[in-house]
C-alpha cells in the first residue's frame, strides 16, 4: 500500500514538473550580440540562460540571427511565434539599425510592430535596450537610446535593461572588431537581462540566482 502511495506521489510530482516545463517557453529574439558571434555557441549568454532555465524547468529557444535588423525581425516574427509558441519573448534587436545609421523612427516603428505581434500571440515582451556609440553622432545616439524607453512607457512595459551595461566601455571584453563581446563578457550580459526575465516569469531574483562573474 505504501509503495502504491509513493508511486502516485512521484507520478504527480513528475506530471507537475512536466506541465511547468511545457508551460514556460522563452524565445530570445536578437542579432549577433545574442547569437554568440565569434565565440563558441556554448559560451554565449543565451546558452548560459538556457542552462540556468533548464534547471528550473523553463525552455529557452534562441531565434537570434547575426546581422538581423528590426525590419528583418519583424518580417519573420509571425512565423517564429507560430512555430515556437513562446510565453515570453526577449526582444533584443536594433544594433544593426544603429550601425547602419537607419532613422530612429524606422527602428521604433519596427519594434512597435513586433511588440504588438508578440502581445497578440499572448506572450510577454521583455524589451532589451541597445546603445549606439557616440561617434555615430551625439544626437543620434541619444535618440536611439531613448526610443527603447519611450516604447516601454507607451506599451506599459518594464524599463528595458541595457544589453551591454558595464561592458560597452571595457574594450578588453570585446573581440578584435570592437563590436562583439568575448566569451568572458557573456555572464555579465546575462546578469544584465536576467532580472527582467525573472520578473516576466514571476520568479524572484536572489543571490543564489545571480551568474558568477568570470
For the biggest sheet, the summary is: 4 strands, parallel
* Low-pLDDT sequence parts: 1-22, 205-214
Strands of the widest sheet, in order across it, are 2-1-3-4
SSE class: alpha/beta
Distance between the termini: 51 Å
Percent strand equals 5-15%
Count of individual beta strands: 4
Helicity, as a percent range: 40-55%
Shape: globular
Q: Mean of the pLDDT scores? A: 87
Gyration radius from CA atoms, angstroms: 19 Å
Q: How many helices does DSSP assign?
A: 7
Helix/strand order, N-terminal first: HEHEHEHHEHH
Overall description:
The chain is an alpha/beta fold and 214 residues long. It has helices spanning 2-23, 45-54, 70-84, 95-99, 104-120, 138-154, 186-200, and strands at residues 25-30, 59-62, 88-92, 124-127. Strands 2-1-3-4 form a four-stranded parallel sheet, sandwiched between helices. Helix 3 packs parallel to helix 5 and helix 5 (104-120) packs parallel to helix 6 (138-154). The chain is globular and about 45 Å long. It starts with a helix and ends in a 14-residue tail after the last helix. Mean pLDDT is 87; it is low at 1-22 and 205-214.
Amino acid at each position: 500500500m505504501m509503495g502504491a502511495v509513493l508511486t502516485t506521489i512521484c507520478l504527480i510530482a513528475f506530471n507537475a514538473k512536466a506541465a511547468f516545463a511545457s508551460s514556460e517557453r522563452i524565445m530570445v529574439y536578437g542579432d549577433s550580440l545574442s547569437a554568440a558571434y565569434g565565440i563558441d555557441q556554448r559560451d554565449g549568454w543565451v546558452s548560459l540562460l538556457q542552462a540556468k532555465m533548464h534547471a528550473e524547468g523553463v525552455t529557452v529557444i534562441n531565434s537570434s540571427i547575426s546581422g538581423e535588423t528590426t525590419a528583418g525581425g519583424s518580417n519573420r516574427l509571425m512565423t517564429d511565434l507560430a512555430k515556437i509558441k513562446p510565453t515570453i519573448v526577449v526582444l533584443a534587436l536594433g544594433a544593426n539599425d544603429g550601425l547602419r545609421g537607419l532613422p530612429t523612427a524606422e527602428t521604433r516603428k519596427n519594434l512597435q510592430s513586433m511588440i504588438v505581434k508578440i502581445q497578440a500571440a499572448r506572450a510577454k515582451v521583455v524589451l532589451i535596450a541597445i546603445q549606439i556609440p557616440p561617434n555615430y553622432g551625439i544626437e543620434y545616439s541619444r535618440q536611439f537610446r531613448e526610443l527603447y524607453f519611450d516604447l516601454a512607457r507607451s506599451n506599459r512595459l518594464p524599463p528595458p535593461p541595457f544589453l551591454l551595461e558595464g561592458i560597452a566601455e571595457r574594450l578588453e571584453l570585446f573581440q578584435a572588431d570592437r563590436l562583439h563581446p568575448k566569451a568572458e563578457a557573456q555572464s555579465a550580459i546575462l546578469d544584465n537581462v536576467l532580472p527582467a526575465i525573472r520578473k516576466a516569469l514571476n520568479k524572484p531574483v536572489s543571490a543564489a540566482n545571480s551568474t558568477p562573474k568570470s
